[in-house]
Amino acid sequence: MLRSVVSKGLSLADDVFIALSPDARRPAAALVGVLFHSLYASREQLCNGLLAPNQGVTVDGFRNFVEAALEAGYHVVSPEQVDAGLEPGRNYVVITFDDGYYNNTLALDVLEEFQVPATFFVSSHHVLQNKAFWWDAFSRQLTRAGATHRALKAQINALKTLTNDGIEAVLRERFGNAVLQPHSDLDRPFTAPELRDFARNKWVRLGNHTRDHEILTNCLPSEMASQIQACQRELAEICGYAPVAIAYPNGNCSPAAIEAAAAAGLRVGFTVRPTRNAVPLATEYSRMTLGRFMFWGGQDARVQWRKFSSSFVPSNALRTLISGY
């Protein structure tokens, strides 16, 4: 009950600040990163229980997002363009997908329709091992056991304090060795041949998401380097080129993680800090710690874009404070 009241209060505060803020109507030049994970073919597919609760974005919702971004005057760019330097005085957006779900192929028709690029950050071992993402596997098991959404979220967050090996060991001990087997095209990662074909599309860019979707702040510096370098090497072997950008799993980064990414040849980095990025990007650090907003399915795309455009949104400021950025 309290959580619902706080959420509604923050939403009202957001609307008031945006309505009164002149920069919501005339935003200062910025690069906006927007984050997606899975795409659903239809609203009906949202209820099948194969994926952990996430953003609930359908193909139609994704299309509405791209249309709203273009209507708002944003230029869609790739990490390569960010790395080359963005022209001041304009607004830009980077469309990103994290993890490497096969269902991301559903984005292609929309990208072709609007002729805009998107960047797909892939955890390479999931592709090479045909391994389901642990949060989906864990969510399925707990949901079958009757866990509430709140309890499920708390247990997923608790597992995020472990390394990937530790998380997988917990899941196998509790649910058996088959727990990480995918169930369908909705929850599985790409295969290597599929990813190779996907990467050939002119609107697709690939990015580094570490070898095992390792939360880097749980690792020693040597482990960070190994995770990032292995992903660079394996994606290059699969697709013929190494990415220039990394999305830090769970958004967690640190000076050591940034250093490891830069040493692996990566020049652009994305967090999940909900903030606009001032253009031009002033420093190497700012280019390696770019903020991203979550786009939520079932919510008006144009309303969300007004929040992305405002330099101050109360709910985003609170999330940034809680995250420690």
Summarize the structure.
With 325 residues, the chain is an alpha/beta fold. It contains 15 helices and nine strands.
Topology:
Blueprint (H helix, E strand, L loop, with lengths): L1 H19 L1 H4 L4 E7 L22 H13 L3 E2 L2 H6 L7 E8 L8 H7 L3 E5 L1 H6 L4 H11 L4 H11 L4 H12 L16 H8 L4 E5 L12 H19 L5 E3 L7 H9 L4 E3 L6 E2 L5 H5 L3 E3 L6 H9 L4 H10 L2
Parallel strand pairs: 1-3, 1-9, 2-3, 3-4, 4-5, 6-7
Antiparallel strand pairs: 1-8
Helix pairs in contact: 7-9, 11-12
Question: What would you note in describing this structure?
Answer:
The protein has 325 residues and is of the alpha/beta class. The chain has one domain: Glycoside hydrolase/deacetylase (TIM Barrel, Alpha-Beta Barrel), CATH 3.20.20.370. It is built from 15 helices and nine strands. It is globular, with a radius of gyration of 19 Å. 42% of the residues are buried.
Low confidence ranges: 1-10, 321-325
Please tally the helical runs, counting DSSP H or I stretches of 4 or more residues.
15
For the secondary structure, the number of strands is: 9
Give the CATH class: Alpha Beta
Largest sheet: 7 strands, mixed
Q: Could you report the average pLDDT, rounded to the nearest whole number?
A: 90
The CATH architecture classification is Alpha-Beta Barrel
Helix content: 40-55%
Gyration radius, rounded: 19 Å
End-to-end Cα distance:
28 Å
CATH superfamily: Glycoside hydrolase/deacetylase
Please indicate the percent range of residues in DSSP E strands (runs of 2 or more).
5-15%
Number of domains: 1
